[in-house]
Design a protein that fits this description.
The longest helix has 23 residues. The chain is α+β, with helices and mostly antiparallel strands and 149 residues long. Helix 1 packs across helix 3, helix 2 crosses helix 6 and helix 4 runs antiparallel to helix 6. A two-stranded parallel ribbon has the order 1-2. This is Methyltransferase type 11 domain-containing protein. It holds the Pfam family Methyltransf_11. One of its GO terms (molecular function) is sterol 24-C-methyltransferase activity. InterPro entries: Erg6_SMT_methyltransf, Methyltransf_11, SAM-dependent_MTases_sf.
Length: 149
């Protein structure tokens, strides 16, 4: 036991064995220490049989750099299995939604669209269009409460 606390933000999507990962984190934390986890997870509203849900998740993953997509309950279970007591499991965003923040940032990219269209190679226009579609999918997933980071 070496650390007073730990946190992770958007990195554990790359872990293939989350149970082993949480066991190791628990092992190196001092007794009574806290660990904070913030990563891409699916929520209870996600329906793998709903094509719209699947499409939103598929488009959001490259937008946020996600590799693994699991239900939040699987993360909680792996944490509890490692010995952690889950004190809180909720979306930490203001109001429980991230979509408004993403939408409020769009205005900052208007000049970039102009530059890409008139000053840069065509591939930049295509890239920005793809990024816009992925951002819209992320906002839709957030509004439907099917996934969050």
């Amino acid at each position: 036991s070496h650390f007073d606390g730990a946190y992770e933000i958007q990195a554990f999507t790359y872990s293939q064995d989350k149970a082993a990962l949480f066991r190791e984190i628990y092992r190196v934390l001092k007794p009574g220490s806290k660990f904070s986890y913030l990563d891409w997870v699916l929520l209870d509203n996600y329906d793998p049989g709903n094509e719209e849900h699947v499409d939103h998740v598929k488009k959001t993953m490259p937008f946020i750099g996600a590799v693994d997509t699991v239900l939040y309950k699987e993360i909680e279970s792996a944490m509890k299995g490692a010995g952690f007591a889950v004190l809180s499991s909720e979306d930490a965003s203001i109001g429980g939604h991230q979509g408004p923040l993403i939408n409020s940032e769009r205005r900052h990219y208007a000049w970039l669209r102009f530059m890409a269209r008139y000053l840069l190679p065509a591939r930049f226009t295509r890239m920005l269009a793809r990024l816009r579609v992925y951002a819209e999918a992320f906002v839709a997933a957030d509004e439907l409460r099917i996934a969050t980071t």
